[in-house]
Amino acid sequence: MRRGAVRGVVVAGSLVAVLAGAGPAGAWAGPEADVAYHGRVSLVKGRLTVWMVPRNEGPSALANATVRVRLSADLADVQEPAGGCVRAGVREVVCETGPLPEHGPGRHIGLVLGLREKPAEVAVRIDTGWNGGATDRNRANNELVVLALDTGDAYAF
Question: Is-above-0.85 flag for pTM?
């Protein structure tokens, strides 16, 4: 089990990001959970749609976590993010997952993001920004990159 000391907490609205750093062994031990994301992305004429369902493979339930969506293209200046989501930068949106039960799905998250330009393709990086203070031994299933081409096709992850 990875152990670390909490180094800092950043609060943005109802979203919380915790930065964990290395600390003395045994200094802090949280629950263990395996957060994963499944969904699809599509791109049409400068509008990117991201639909996903976070899932916790356990062994502990989580009260909340945050998923970070980073793009290879700039977001348009005006955005209307979905409930529980905030723009976190020129190319980044962060959303809370809500409760993640042990071995169960969280709430569906749907984003419709306007892009500043109309690129032929956009790389979409999806990862966990904060996992409720839990240890996650399998980060491979919550660090994803999906290439969306401007075809209107849905690309699954």
Answer: no
